[in-house]
Automatic annotation (TrEMBL):
<keyword id="KW-0255">Endonuclease</keyword>
<dbReference type="GO" id="GO:0003676">
    <property type="term" value="F:nucleic acid binding"/>
</dbReference>
<dbReference type="InterPro" id="IPR036397">
    <property type="entry name" value="RNaseH_sf"/>
</dbReference>
<comment type="similarity">
    <text>Belongs to the RNase H family.</text>
</comment>
<dbReference type="Pfam" id="PF00075">
    <property type="entry name" value="RNase_H"/>
</dbReference>
<keyword id="KW-0378">Hydrolase</keyword>
<keyword id="KW-0479">Metal-binding</keyword>
<keyword id="KW-0540">Nuclease</keyword>
<feature type="domain" description="RNase H type-1">
    <location>
        <begin position="1"/>
        <end position="159"/>
    </location>
</feature>
<dbReference type="InterPro" id="IPR012337">
    <property type="entry name" value="RNaseH-like_sf"/>
</dbReference>
<protein>
    <recommendedName>
        <fullName>ribonuclease H</fullName>
        <ecNumber>3.1.26.4</ecNumber>
    </recommendedName>
</protein>
<dbReference type="GO" id="GO:0043137">
    <property type="term" value="P:DNA replication, removal of RNA primer"/>
</dbReference>
<dbReference type="InterPro" id="IPR002156">
    <property type="entry name" value="RNaseH_domain"/>
</dbReference>
<dbReference type="InterPro" id="IPR050092">
    <property type="entry name" value="RNase_H"/>
</dbReference>
<dbReference type="GO" id="GO:0046872">
    <property type="term" value="F:metal ion binding"/>
</dbReference>
<dbReference type="GO" id="GO:0004523">
    <property type="term" value="F:RNA-DNA hybrid ribonuclease activity"/>
</dbReference>
Amino acid sequence: MEFKVDGACRRNGKRGSTAVAAACLFKPGGRSYIPRVKHLRGNKPAPTNQRAEILAIIIALEWALERYSELSGRPCLDVTIQSDSEYAVNSMTNYIKKWIGNGWYNAAGRPVANRDLFQRAVALENKILDIGQVSYNWIPREKNLDADIECREALDSTC
């Protein structure tokens, strides 16, 4: 399964901010997709671009597991998540194991930001790793227009 994900936020991190996360599941052949969009609401913690980017990964992981449960024969699950967020991709590929090993503290000795979302993502990823594999790839923003458009349209519909 191939996903492109994105997150966006207006009034980033401020009271009253609005954020959305989108995951686009591409059909075989890679030209058309099915989107899923979720809104981040509330003020504790306030929605941010980074939280939306991580939530987009969570949406894709949940969706992959949901689709897998509908398959017969239980084939190996191969999930690819592409994002234009270096923060999200680097966190899931390079930093997460270090953070877990450090008790969820970063290299500067501070608590990891967005730990709640990363813990959800790791739990979902581990379920997939029991039955297959997950890869995260950074792509330039211009190659992530589908997910970006889904986010912008969702933000526009909430204003």
